[in-house]
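Q: How would the structure tokens look for this protein?
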Amino acid sequence: MTQVTTHNLGFPRIGARRELKQALEAYWRGESERAELEAVGAHLRQRHWALQADAGIDLLPVGDFSWYDHVLDLSLMLGVIPERFGVGADADDLDLAFRMARGRAHPDDPLAARACEMTKWFDTNYHYLVPEFETDQRFTLQAERLCAQVRQACDLGHRVKAVVVGPLSFLWLGKTNSGGERLALLENLLPIYRELLLQLRDAGAEWVQIDEPILALDLPLEWRSAFERAYFSLQVSGLKRMVAIYFDTAGDNLALACALPVEGLHLDLVRAPQMLLAALDRLPPYKVLSLGVVDGRNVWRTDLAATLDMLGPVHERLGERLWLAPSCSLLHVPVDLEQENDLDPELKTWLAFARQKLDEIAVLARALSHGRQTVAAALSASGNAIQSRLTSAYVHRAEVRARCEQLPREFDRRQPDYAARAPLQHERLRLPLLPSTTIGSFPQTAEIRAARHAWRRGDLDDATYRRHMEAAVADSIERQLEWGLDVLVHGEPERNDMVEYFAEQIDGFAFTRHGWVQSYGSRYVKPPILFGDVRRAQPMTVSWSQYAQSLTDRPVKGMLTGPVTVLQWSFVRDDQTRAETCLQLALALREEVLDLERAGLAIIQIDEPALREGLPLRQQEWKNYLDWAVRCFRITTSGVRAETQIHTHMCYAEFNDIIEAVAAMDADVVTLEASRSNMELLEAFREFDYPAEVGPGLYDIHSPNAPTVEALTARLEKALEYLPAERLWVNPDCGLKTRTWAEVGTALRAMTAAARRARAGLKIDATVA
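A: Here is the predicted structure in token form.
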């Protein structure tokens, strides 16, 4: 039998105990020096390489580590630095990277500026920093930081595969500030990429993995045509190149991908197993085919026996040209399942995190190279786990399935329509023009987190914990009244996370203690594991909202996370369709919405920031997804009375191309992140007659920079060019849990002052009617 090579597309950079987060935030607070931060990064890289090598991975990725975001790293490496951050800025300067990502590198940064736009990495919850190109963009190369990492890994005795985002994907993912064509920049970019490959070769890289995930998209002909000439020009003697495609099928780009003049091709067979036969038929006889057969985006254990049945004939055909890997970078899954001591023992056997997924790759390779008998114990454990999950009573609830099957046809339709509802809502709420509000959360202070941790450990009883949280709610209400906000929120001090909090109170979910994954920068999330049929066990938010409303005559919003976002931001079961699971979530959340209304809440916000994220990469699949996703949102909200105002919130994604679906959700008010793109999102409202009310986010809550009244007024006046004052709201672009109270107070005082200034400019002093 011929040997099968194993490799990995990327490893979680955050550390098993979130060491990277702690080091970054200490540096940003000015509590540590650059050398201390650099030492943490070097240690994490070294440890992660050793973990992968010990698992039996032959070629280790270098370049997957990043302080904030790998696309930002590439922008810096190639000299794509917006002018506002300083002409001739040193691209190797970490402070510059943090300034571009956050607007500020540390508390005393004299060069603070507007942060770069941030959006979702394809259909994941990871966020990347959008490259900003000029029409005459000049590219330069500063690759020493990456080359130093390659040398570091080689010196430790590892076989190295450098990892970079490919030139065409890099251009596609960026934007031109002056409206120029990104593809026109390719000819100037390619010589810089070739020089990068030469430097990686000289540093000791054996292979380079060039990620071109846009080959999983519907590409215009001119972009497809550019691939062959680009990769023909990137041939470098002594360095082998592998183009990696992941997250979906290559579809009509598969023949192009197979024909590219490179030495290897990686395909994601977890997302698109149907590609295999066509790829085998088209693959040239010299080329390595890397198959992503272990899911890099979900936590379920691989069915090793079934995978080997599929791989056996491929191995016979390709021999040593068959490589095995996860489907994509393991950035999207937690680090190590062995840390999870509180999971149900049976459920734990169903799971695999990053370290366990590497073990699965190694087992598959050994079975193919040396026979299944050499890994009999691993195959037996895998088979037992698969069978256990298939037959477990934990997974299926007959009453949940029956309810889903018996819904009336018009169950998702709210009556009457917005035009008839709006006057009733305005009469009930009596809000001023340009009403001001926030998105939901307020700072999760050290005191709040300490109380919650003590309660979870059993060191605080329920009554004492409740008093702590009610005090935090009362403080939030008092501050909002002082700042002059029109519609208030309770601040969510009791919530650990906008998804996990709800999942903890819905049957069908399990939870980890250390299952963190990176969302952006130092912002990590701990997705719950949705393993079975779901139902609401009891009211989840009603008492907190009732208490907050009892403290003020101004309206307080009830705050929920919507079904699509709970689905997208969980590790979701893969034994039924996402549409079926989302419908179950919608029915559970609908019960909570109706309870909030019965409790007297006049406004209920159901956040759906992940609606765009869940959109399939191929446009032919968009309609099916949007049909069931929008229907699930409407099922969540359709039971309320006409005078109850429904809000939703969306952020950090490109919503312009689904604006009609956003309108079809039939929310009365939608608030949207808009500030990092300098309000470009508003163009959608020029081209589409949006039927309801809109709150474009006026300032970037992820930057520590304080917005001024003048800047906020200018953005509000710009919004008034696109939307009538009667349908415009004033709000930040996202929740405020990651900011300090001092930052929040400064920003919201400025925001409410801008709203008052704008109202005065309209020469109208009346409530919306």
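The CA atoms of residues 449 and 622 lie 40 Å apart.

The chain has a mean pLDDT of 95.

Upvote if useful.
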